[in-house]
Design a protein that fits this description.
Helix content: over 70%
Distance between the termini: 60 Å
Largest sheet: 4 strands, antiparallel
Number of strands: 6
Strand order of the largest sheet: 2-3-1-6
Radius of gyration: 59 Å
Shape: rod-shaped
Length: 504
């Protein structure tokens, strides 16, 4: 411990012996450092906070949702620092003054890109900051320029989100109109081609479709005709049976009256001709009436025969049903002939079916594309109306662009203090290093260690009164020099704070 203390005393003594050298080095380093700090231009930063609120209006009909709107905002945020937008900022602020050539504009854009910071603090809260250096301009101009740059960025941000969507909608509508016109012409050509082909090759059956579809439709229609034909033939057989059991004439009285039994039988034939069964109440009542008339002898007379109206009615119904059966048979024969002709033609010309299928497929594809484009165009049009007539996006300027009063860089007071400490440390270090190079020995122990010989003793320096007074005078000068160094430091600090307070 004593050894360390002794070394410290020796180091302090060595520096003190060369204190004027240390002071000179401290002054030199401090003056050079303070000059360098003074030449560093001030940098001012302006900040603003912007809140973007999105609203979902008819998202299921227009395709506008908060997620898509947020993606659009994120895209604008990323492209806000693009070369085109930064060039707008350069030309719209004092940065563009005196810039003529494209190379100068490009240089200003590159410098501005590093001076802008855009970050999202929350989902829809954005902070825009810009830093401007006072190099080549006054502090007030730099501060105002930083504020103007932030304001211009906010204007571009809002413009890109409001006008960008509308411009995109307009471009999309223009593109869809062009595509619809093109698809409409192609669809008309395909329709004409399809109609011509069907007229030439597939005009045998009604409807549209491929050959196989038409054949299937024909088979289904024949099956329906077969069912109708069976029902019509059954009805015709029933009429024949009724005609066989119905007399053509009925007996009439000498006085010209009609036999009640024959009249009742005619009514019975009419009821059965209408399709009523024996269990029907009217049929049973009429049977009971006929039985009562026969029991009473109402049918026994010397009547002559007259035409039976029930028989005539049955004959008329039989003619109608025969005509229906004949019509169904003719229709079935015609369909069968057409199907046979189609099958024969398909066998003779196998490429016709493939060509017809291809034409139909092309037409359906074009029709589907046209319908899809038409629906998309209506959706985009509705979306454009929503964005134009409503506030789908709302911008709130939470914090307007600030007008900086103090520079954010450099931290000149700290730099001035650091230079002062560096100068003091440099002076002490220089004096100490020079002492290490000296051939003198501050203590007898150092001399004994260096020479390897024993040192008998040492003689202290004796000073006269004049020498003591001279030393005191030099000490006062030294302290004054050190105080002047600190005083210059304090003056520079005061000047710095005065300059900061004078920024407009």
């Amino acid at each position: 411990m004593n050894g360390l203390y002794e070394e410290f005393r020796i180091a302090v003594h060595s520096v003190w012996q060369r204190r004027w050298l240390a002071m000179a080095i401290a002054w030199a380093i401090s003056l050079a450092g303070w000059l360098a700090v003074a030449l560093i231009p001030n940098t001012y930063e302006s900040q603003a906070k912007l809140f973007v609120q999105t609203k979902a209006i008819l998202p299921e009909n227009t395709g506008i949702s908060p997620v898509e709107r947020q993606k659009q905002i994120d895209t604008v945020e990323q492209t806000l620092t693009s070369a085109a937008n930064l060039e707008k900022v350069v030309r719209g602020t004092d940065l563009g003054k005196g810039l003529v050539t494209p190379r100068e504009i490009e240089g200003a854009v590159n410098g501005l890109r590093t001076a802008i910071k855009i970050k999202s603090e929350q989902d829809n809260l954005f902070e825009i900051a810009a830093t401007m250096s006072a190099g080549g301009r006054s502090d007030g101009e730099a501060a105002n320029l930083a504020r103007d740059v932030v304001q211009k960025l906010i204007d571009i941000f809002v413009e890109e989100n409001l006008a960008g969507g509308r411009g995109e909608t307009s471009d999309t509508l223009r593109f869809l109109d062009e595509q619809l016109a093109k698809r409409q012409k192609e669809l008309e050509i395909a329709e004409q081609k399809r109609v011509k082909f069907e007229t030439e090759n597939l005009g045998m059956l009604p409807g549209i479709g491929s050959v196989s579809q038409r054949l299937e439709q024909g088979r289904v229609e024949i099956n329906q005709i077969d069912s109708q034909l069976i029902a019509a033939q059954s009805a015709l057989a029933a009429i024949n049976g009724q005609i066989a059991g119905t007399p053509q004439t009925i007996a009439g009285g000498g006085g010209g009256g009609i036999n009640p039994v024959a009249q009742a039988q005619g009514e019975m034939a009419s009821l059965k001709a209408r399709g009523l069964t024996d269990q029907h109440p009217d049929v049973q009542a009429l049977k009971n009436q006929i039985a009562a008339l026969k029991a009473a002898g109402a049918g026994a007379s010397t009547a002559y025969g007259v035409s039976n109206p029930a028989y005539s009615s049955l004959v008329s119904m039989k003619a109608e049903r025969q005509a229906a059966v004949s019509a169904l048979q003719s229709r079935k024969a015609a369909l069968q002939g057409e199907m046979n002709a189609m099958v024969a033609k398909q066998i003779q010309e196998p490429g016709v079916a493939a060509e017809q299928a291809r034409i139909a497929r092309d037409y359906e594809v074009l029709k589907a594309q046209y319908d899809k484009l038409l629906a998309d165009r209506e959706q985009v049009r509705l979306r454009g109306q929503v964005e134009t007539q409503t506030d789908a996006v709302r911008f709130d300027l939470i914090t307007p662009p600030s007008s900086p009063r103090t520079p954010i860089a450099p931290k000149r007071p700290l730099l001035l203090a650091a230079v002062l400490f560096a100068g003091i440390a440099g002076g002490i270090g220089g004096a100490f290093a020079l002492g290490q190079l000296s051939a003198s020995y501050p203590t007898s122990a150092k001399l004994e260690a260096a020479s390897g010989l024993p040192v008998i003793g040492s003689i202290s320096q004796m000073l006269t009164q004049v020498q003591r007074d001279e030393r005191k005078r030099k000490l006062r000068m030294y302290i004054g020099s050190g105080g002047a160094l600190v005083g210059v430091f304090l003056v520079l600090l005061i000047i710095e704070f005065i300059q900061r307070g004078s920024v407009v």
